[in-house]
Amino acid sequence: MKKILLLIFLVHITACVSGKKIEKETKKYDENWDSLAKHKESPDWFSDSKLGIYFHWGVYSVPAFGGEWYPRNMYIPGHGFNKHHLETYGDLQEFGYHDFVPMFKAEKFDAKAWVDLFEKAGARFAGPVAEHHDGFSMWDSEVTPWNSMAKGPKKDILGELKRELDKKNMKLIATFHHSKQLQRYNGKEESAKEHHFKDSHYPMYPGLEPERSKELDYLYGNIPEDKWLEDIWFGKLKEVIDKYNPDIMWFDSWLDRIPEDYRAKFCAYYLNEAEKWNKEVVIVRKQDDLPLDFSVDDLEKSRKNKMGDKVWMTDETISKGSWCYTENLTIKPTKDVLHVLIDIVSKNGVLLLNVSPKADGSIPLNQQQVLLGMGDWLKKYGEAIYGTRPWFTYGEGPTKEPDGHFKNAKKFLKVKYSDKDVRYTTKERTIYATILGKPDSEKLITLEAFKKENASRIGKIDKVEVLGSTGEITWRLTEGGLQLKMPKLVPDEMAIVVKIVTKPL
């Protein structure tokens, strides 16, 4: 009997040890950059996708004034937002940012209708700003009481969207901007004067009550840093990973304010969990705060003016102003948004396009029209976009984009393309030359990338056609490139796609 019991005990111990060994073996990534570098930063599905949609929508949409930084600027004496708030809502002691939360009802929000719209627009992935700098979480959270299920809409925004995206086999992105939420200057007035609270979203503890509410601390980030890093910053990320299994996790600026060990902790946790899900996932960063060995670089309201060696992303908004909805928000023409997408794709990029819903959960008609107009073009000519890769050159023409990041955002707004600008993509042995405008009937165009000196890169041209046209296009190779004579009937489109099929020399 003793021998049997001993045998059972040994089997049990062996199983436990084996279990631990298996568990250890399945943990592919450790919490350091060298280990994390094993991750492929851009899986094929992401490189193929080209277009995703997200949205700045939250409590800050309620005042619909100025922009999504209303929660911060309303507390800065003399700021335009502050003046507006005092005139519209009264004294800050009587009406703080948290008083907008019950007004954020999202009564018209329809996850199915939103996802249907995003699909029609041509997006391959979509999702919310899961949390902006303001500390309000757009999911059903147990980490913070300030979430969309417990307060405001009383809806699990992220969860409802995920269910609808899954039905259409679309990927889920969740973006995080909460690295700035921590109140780093409480009681440090000298830092406030010197740096204007640059590392914190709220310029002071804005609850202003004599006896501060512990619940308000979670919204305004007035929590000891050690606790905030573990329970709030990392806790929220872990909760979204565990509950919603996102395909892309994207970070706004100020991630560098988070200690490196916590950044590595998040990355390892996410990637190890994705291994369990058998998912290829993507981490996107905006500053030099994560190594590009395993993350994708994002350029805000800007883009590259040359070919990217690695897949990169631009986050751009549908408007000429705020990221969130504001009264009298000016929306860009469909053509301009489409041309930005085509330019980005030609340079090995992916566009993350922002829309700006109203606080009630409706997406304004003028924004919907831009999305649907883009979608109509992509439905007809998407073969020149989806699943393509950059050619040896991104394009040609007189229009040149500025260099740099967000600092040049206003310059990018002034960039306008014409039918003299061409952008290239390729797929297998096909080259797509997309003309960023409508050429005149029977106009002669020369594609300079097809110069004789580039013959080895091109192969032998087998067929040339203008997509969407039944008219014949005539062409010939010259010393200066591929000369095209447009058909009599050129499609009346925002961009014209010339499809060039080649075969080996």
Structure commentary:
The protein has an eight-stranded parallel barrel with strand order 1-2-3-4-5-6-7-8. A hairpin with a 2-residue loop joins strand 10 and strand 11. It has 15 helices and 16 strands. It has helices at 2-26, 33-36, 44-49, 70-73, 80-88, 111-120, 157-167, 189-195, 214-220, 225-244, 260-277, 334-346, 365-381, 409-413, 455-458, and strands at residues 51-55, 125-131, 171-176, 248-251, 282-285, 296-300, 312-317, 349-355, 395-396, 422-427, 430-435, 444-447, 460-466, 474-478, 481-485, 496-503. With 505 residues, the chain is an alpha/beta fold. Helix 6 packs across helix 7 and helix 10 (225-244) runs parallel beside helix 11. The chain is globular, with a radius of gyration of 26 Å.
Low-confidence stretches: 5-11, 17-23
Mean of all residue-level pLDDT scores: 91
Structural class: alpha/beta
Helix content: 25-40%
Proportion of residues in β-strands: 15-25%
Put simply, the count of helices is: 15
Outline type: globular
Strand order in space, largest sheet: 1-2-3-4-5-6-7-8
* Count of DSSP strands: 16
What's the end-to-end separation, in Å? 81 Å
Taking the sheet with the most strands, its summary is: 8 strands, parallel, barrel
Query: What radius of gyration results from the CA coordinates?
Result: 26 Å
